[in-house]
Fold this protein.
Amino acid sequence: MPADVRPQFRVLGEVLSRWATERGDDPALVFGDRTWTWDVCSPEVERVVAEFPGVAEVAVIGVPDDRWGEQVKAVVTAVPGAQVDAEKLIEYCRERLAHYKCPCTVDVREALPRNETGKILKRKVREPYWQGHSRRV
């Protein structure tokens, strides 16, 4: 098994969540119940979201969900002078991705947090959504 693959299982009430692939601070989003699990690779979703007119930058993250453990959220910045319609963006994604990979919600921000080299800090993007939850991803 490659060094970057570390199976981990966590049971949250009736929900079984599994993170199978860890890539630094950008783990694959994996969610489901005891019967099914779905793997969502955030770069795949980010590529589709970035193609939407008016999107300048994107970070796809997992946010808390009572039923599935996590749901997919896109956090985007708009091109100067453009507006991003969240509903149209979700519809755009549903035409190009499997339904379970599509963002359930979209937030538009002025800027995304970055480190000194310019990489988007997804853990900083995720933080506000996980406040008040005992489990953090």
